[in-house]
Amino acid sequence: MASSAGATFTVLFSIFVTWTLISILGRAAGGKVASSDVVALIVFAVLGNLPTIIILTAFISVLAVVTRSYRDSEMVVWFASGQSLARWIWPVMSFGLPLVLLTGALSFVATPWAKMKSNEFVQRFEKREDLKKVAPGQFRESAGTNRVFFVEGGADATSNNAVQNVFVNTIENGINTVVVARQGVIEPDGKGGQFLVLKNGRRYQGTPGQADFQTMEFARYSMRVATKVPVLGADQPVDNMSTAALLLLPNRYTQAELLWRIASPVMCVLLMLLAIPLGFVNPRAGSSVNLILAVLIFFTYSNLVKLTEASVKQDKLPFATGWWPVHLLVLLAAVGLFAWRLNVNHRYHPLVLLAAFKRGRAGGGRA
Fold first, then answer.
1. pLDDT beyond 50 at 234
2. Would the pLDDT of 168 be above 60?
3. Which of 47, 205, 290, 311 can bridge 214 by disulfide, Cβ–Cβ 3.0-4.6 Å?
4. What is the mean pLDDT of residues 5-10?
5. What angle do CA 252, 257, 261 make, to 5 degrees?
6. Residues of the chain above pLDDT 90, percent
7. Cα 13 → chain centroid
8. For the chain, percent of residues with pLDDT exceeding 70
């Protein structure tokens, strides 16, 4: 099981990291996040989704081992030796308990922290001044959507954080203004405002060829730029809050988030139990159907939990009666499958075989 889990986790983790890398690189190329934060954002995204990867790893690894035992006819020997399918529960739980504990620790502690840090990185970039967001060779729209920046060269160690060869296109009151300068820098005015100071450039206002078209050269030119100011005390998303904070602030939103965090370790346990009877396969048939069925069961289970979470969040279902029905349904399904498989495989029990042998001998003697 450990060997199967290692291979499964490696594949799932590699797929998820590749997908996350493509997504975050796309956001960085679009100017939505800083290029220097790409590695950190990938780490936070992986931590945020690691519980799901571990749950799916545990489910598939147990299912794969049980399926292989059926396919290699080892389960025939198992049942013929007087062993029950229920005897698989203890080794499976011994293997899965560390995964359950890890899933719980990630769900209750690491995942909220990772989401909080990721949100901080994104918000920190969004609150930067418009000019500082611009990467060399990239057009960038201002927060007010009425101004476009372009810089040819970034800041260096001797330029006091200034950027080189700046282009600014502004549309205000229907008038188009273009400013080009050799250098630009953001300077505060001491009153909470921000000014873009351009040096050694030209300013063009209006439409070329019209009577109102103006052009001028300047050594220093200042314009006020819109800057997003952090709002102190703003509410943070509930998925960024620690578990202790969720418990101290009971409402439908925090309870819905708490429901999802509780569900992760519970799902890990129940899916491993479900994988034992679900691993049955005809040795003469393929085992791919079991894997497809496992993926469908996992996503159905996960979506049902998400649906319950949404119902609690919308105040359609109280938390006390919302966190357990889906898990109880899966537990009953596992118990039902165990009962069915035990009933099907009872003919392999040695006592049953001995009774059948005696009946055969008795029938032969009478004949």
1. no
2. yes
3. 205
4. 93
5. 145
6. 31
7. 12
8. 77
- 7, 32 in Cβ contact below 8 A? no
Considering only CA atoms, which of 60, 8, 71, 88 is closest in space to residue 276? 88
Q: How far is CA 110 from the centre of its chain?
A: 13
Is 256 within 8 Å of 316 (Cβ atoms)?
A: no
Structure tokens at 125: 């970039």
Amino acid (one-letter) located at 24: I
> In three state form, how does the secondary structure of the chain look?
CHHHHHHHHHHHHHHHHHHHHHHHHHHHHCCCCCHHHHHHHHHHHHHHHHHHHHHHHHHHHHHHHHHHHHHCCHHHHHHHCCCCHHHHHHHHHHHHHHHHHHHHHHHHHHHHHHHHHHHHHHHHHHCCCHHHHCCCCCEEECCCCCEEEEEEECCCCCCCCCEEEEEEEEEECCEEEEEEEEEEEEEECCCCCEEEEEEEEEEEECCCCCCCCEEEEEEEEEEECCCCCCCCCCCCCHHHCCHHHHHHCCCHHHHHHHHHHHHHHHHHHHHHHHHHHHCCCCCCCCCHHHHHHHHHHHHHHHHHHHHHHHHHHCCCCCHHHCCCHHHHHHHHHHHHHHHHHHHHHHHHCHHHHHHHHHHHHHHHHHC
The answer to whether the beta carbons of residues 199 and 184 sit under 8 Å apart is yes
Q: What residues are paired with 177 via a beta bridge?
A: 170, 205
| AA letter at 151 | V
Residue with tokens 């997908």: 19
* Full-model pTM: 0.69
